[in-house]
Backbone:
């Protein structure tokens, strides 16, 4: 009898506990929203996505989180344009996994299968495939991305020790116009993005990380005393700008980046723009203001964001007056040393002045019509605005995507009308621009502020 009563009592206790657990789980799922930064929505509208009530988006180091209205839904005409461009681009892949832009001497050859593959073009296509939602393991074009990745890793691994570039191919359109070592700069950016997305547990991670460190060493070996990169092309400032941003991205994923080298690279880009006078140094930008100011904007974006957030935090804590202007004195009050305050104030002023010029109609026209350099400059400006958490990126996105959709070719590709004319390179760059809002979380993490104690 006692045994029977004991078993009955145990049954009721267990049943009651289960009911409590079930009710707790249901209450949690009903009352606590699942927060995430949304990617592009296949159901299209120009409106901003509605976040889950109560959600606050946060990046790696931020304390205040991100206003969800910062993330835009991709307009349907842009998605159609992306799809057409991606379909064309996939068909351009060569049997070795790479993609090619062709030689400067034979720009009349536009068939993507009639040119040699090169790392710079392959890196741009690889980044476009990732931004369009593909990984090494998932996505409609995962196999294409995997082949392109293998191509780039092999290029890095086969490069001679002590080299400053990962390819012995010379005279490509991109090298002639941007610089002889542009391949390693763009491959570094690709590998940084790849490492960030696949995570440490992926089977390719260690190989990709080794290749990334190799590329970082090459960029640092090729750096001139003024922070630029050796082997200038027609618009060498763009090569140096992409090298600087590649070092920045590589550092963000834990690569072996020398801090002095990164600072020197950033300082070179900032020096191309005088925030006080608005004058632009274009002697290494082919005389084109767009190329110089887009580089200045991109390579001051992280520091400009840090300044903005640190000062806002200091004002909230009462360390800085609420109406204090953004200047060196305010930055010192916020906790910077006098030397740091001067440096960071310069970055802030350069960023804000350069971003305005980079979006001005007379500057956006670039060389007068669109070449690959213009597309690259548009990309740098847009990514800068996102990295800096600058709400003006939404206006830039609307204007720039509208421009690109209007000039897309009937077959889905884009091509340049001067200098870098390659349809493969221009299509990959255009897709990176159109789909930039797919990468909001990743770009914001690159600029996330590591707050000081």
Residues:
């Amino acid at each position: 009898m006692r045994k029977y009563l004991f078993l009955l009592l145990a049954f009721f206790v267990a049943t009651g506990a289960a009911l409590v657990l079930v009710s707790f789980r249901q209450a949690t799922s009903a009352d606590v929203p699942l927060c995430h930064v949304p990617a592009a929505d296949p159901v299209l509208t120009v409106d901003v996505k509605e976040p889950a009530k109560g959600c606050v988006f946060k990046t790696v180091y931020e304390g205040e989180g991100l206003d969800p209205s910062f993330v835009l839904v991709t307009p349907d005409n842009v998605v159609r344009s992306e799809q057409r461009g991606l379909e064309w681009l996939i068909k351009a892949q060569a049997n070795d996994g790479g993609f090619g832009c062709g030689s400067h001497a034979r720009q009349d050859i536009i068939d993507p299968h009639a040119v040699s593959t090169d790392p710079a073009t392959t890196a741009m296509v690889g980044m476009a495939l990732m931004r369009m939602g593909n990984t090494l393991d998932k996505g409609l074009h995962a196999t294409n991305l995997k082949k392109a990745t293998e191509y780039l890793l092999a290029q890095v691994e086969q490069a001679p020790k002590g080299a400053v570039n990962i390819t012995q191919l010379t005279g490509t359109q991109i090298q002639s116009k941007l610089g002889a070592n542009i391949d390693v700069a763009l491959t570094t950016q690709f590998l940084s993005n790849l490492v960030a997305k696949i995570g440490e547990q992926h089977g390719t991670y260690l190989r990709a990380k080794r290749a990334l460190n190799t590329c970082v060493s090459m960029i640092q070996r090729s750096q001139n005393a003024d922070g630029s990169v050796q082997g200038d092309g027609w618009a060498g400032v763009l090569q140096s700008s992409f090298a600087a941003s590649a070092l920045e991205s590589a550092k963000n994923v834990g690569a072996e980046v020398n801090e002095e080298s990164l600072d020197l690279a950033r300082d070179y880009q900032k020096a191309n723009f005088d925030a006080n006078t608005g004058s632009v140094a274009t002697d290494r930008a082919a005389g084109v203001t767009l190329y110089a100011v887009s580089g200045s904007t991109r390579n001051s974006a992280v520091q400009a964001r840090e300044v903005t957030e640190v000062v806002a935090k200091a004002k909230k804590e009462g360390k800085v007056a609420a109406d204090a202007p953004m200047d060196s004195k305010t930055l010192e009050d916020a906790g910077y040393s006098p030397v740091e305050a001067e440096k960071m104030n310069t970055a802030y002023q350069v960023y804000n002045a350069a971003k305005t010029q980079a979006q001005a109609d007379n500057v956006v026209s670039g060389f007068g019509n669109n070449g690959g350099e213009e597309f690259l400059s548009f990309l740098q400006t847009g990514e800068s605005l996102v990295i800096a958490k600058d709400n003006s990126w939404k206006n830039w996105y609307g204007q720039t995507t509208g421009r690109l959709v209007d000039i897309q070719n009937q077959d889905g590709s884009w091509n340049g009308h001067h200098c870098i004319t390659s349809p493969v390179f221009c299509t990959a760059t255009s897709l990176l621009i159109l789909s930039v809002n797919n990468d909001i979380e990743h770009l914001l993490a690159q600029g996330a502020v590591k707050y000081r104690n």
